[in-house]
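Here is this case:
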Amino acid sequence: MDIRKFAAAIGATDQAHYSVRTAHERGYPDLLAPAYFFISLGLSLGRIGPRSQFGPAGLPNDDPLASRRVVAGEVHVEWFGDLFAGDEVLVEQTLTGTSSKVGRSGAFDTYTYERRYARQGAIVVREVFTRIAR
């Protein structure tokens, strides 16, 4: 995803997201990605391929949540640095836990994941999130 387009879409006004000159004047190597830009990288993880490999919700057919109704649960983010245009970012996602519960509306399962976004071997962002499936 293009940093400028993402910045415009979220209404970011910092010129370091739009102007390489401004970014350089502030000591950055290139355009500065807005704080939640990493999400666009994580959402595309494993989602490049023929349409036949994906269900109606855009999840890979082999994803355990592909055939279920899913809502977002808790999200926790830790930042250890910034992302810039031109960075090669390695995104790794791990399923860290599952549980089954019964609520007022019936049974549901929770899936907790961790995503790590690294640049040159150093973690820049760590995201832990839960998905609730029925």
Q: What stands out?
A: Residues 54 and 60 are 4 Å apart (CA to CA). The domain at 61-133 is CATH 3.10.129.10 (Thiol Ester Dehydrase; Chain A). The two ends are 31 Å apart (CA to CA).
